[in-house]
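Hi V.,

Quick status before I head out on leave. The structure for the redesign project is tokenized and pasted below; the design run finished overnight.
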């Protein structure tokens, strides 16, 4: 336990994050912590299965299939375009996402890095990276390319896989120490229909790439200038993950991306948003 800094990280972990631009917290979350967010994902998969069934694209909703397989099997005989109609990543307002974004273990870790006045950025994604769909790959980029004009440095991404992530199913890969780089000139990826922001190979520099395989429930924290990517999923299971983002409350709330929420405040705990505020798109608690 560190005695000087609030939050849950040790001085060594904070130093590592500041030096390398990222930090891995293996198995931060338990199955119990992840149950509500998995429930939200299952809800969404059921909605998609109903739609595919109504459209006559499938004859079986595969309700009994296990979490890592159901979505992959629903699209097994369909095309990448059929899948992309439902979005390459999802940002639904389902209670399970709020539960995860408010998880004290995540907030304690982030507090160690940027203090205890924490705003949950509107940009959070559920990523159902399904097998062999080229669009599952995410090209090299800096998250800041999605909010180049925002006065929001630092935004911290917290990337959490719901299944074990490895190099076969397309875990996150990162270039350490690139967080001190300026924002690089990006272009929009054109091949796969995802519209991801992307960098050219010539912009990546000489820094080694570090693949970050991690067990389910681990968290990878990284700075929004740190270069990262992920490869396609070559397994037969869905690589389920979420990426959440936090910033200090005095930074740009980025309303153009949606409504974030006050996740933690030592100064004004009475203002921290509750589930009903978040569902209503309110950034703070309203009595
Ligand atoms: O989940 C992935 O594969 C990529 C995640 C990512 O690029 C991000 O969280 O910014």
């Amino acid at each position: 336990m560190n005695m000087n800094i609030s939050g849950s990280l040790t001085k060594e972990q904070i130093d590592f994050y500041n030096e390398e631009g990222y930090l891995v917290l293996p198995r931060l979350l338990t199955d119990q912590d992840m149950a509500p967010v998995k429930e939200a994902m299952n809800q969404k998969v059921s909605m998609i299965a109903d739609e595919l069934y109504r459209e006559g694209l499938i004859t079986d909703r595969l309700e009994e299939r296990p979490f890592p397989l159901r979505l992959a099997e629903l699209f097994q005989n369909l095309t990448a375009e059929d899948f992309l109609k439902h979005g390459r990543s999802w940002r639904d307002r389902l209670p399970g996402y709020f539960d995860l974004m408010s998880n004290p273990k995540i907030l304690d870790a982030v507090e160690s890095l940027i203090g205890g006045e924490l705003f949950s950025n509107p940009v959070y994604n559920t990523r159902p990276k399904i097998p062999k769909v080229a669009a599952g790959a995410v090209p090299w980029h800096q998250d800041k390319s999605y909010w180049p004009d925002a006065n929001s440095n630092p935004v911290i991404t917290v990337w959490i896989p719901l299944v074990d992530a490895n190099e076969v199913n397309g875990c996150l890969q990162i270039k350490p120490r690139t967080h001190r780089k300026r924002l690089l000139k990006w272009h929009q990826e054109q091949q796969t229909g995802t519209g991801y922001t992307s960098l050219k190979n010539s912009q990546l520099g000489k820094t080694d790439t570090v693949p970050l395989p991690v067990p389910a429930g681990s968290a990878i924290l990284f700075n929004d200038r740190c270069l990262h990517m992920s490869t396609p999923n070559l397994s037969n299971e869905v690589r389920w993950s979420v990426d959440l983002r936090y910033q200090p409350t005095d930074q740009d709330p980025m309303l153009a991306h949606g409504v974030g929420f006050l996740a933690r405040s030592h100064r004004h705990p009475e203002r921290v948003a509750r589930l009903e505020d978040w569902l209503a798109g309110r950034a703070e608690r309203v009595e």
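Above is the designed sequence. The helical segments are 11-20, 31-54, 70-74, 80-84, 95-101, 104-114, 275-279.

G. will cover questions while I'm gone.

Best,
W.
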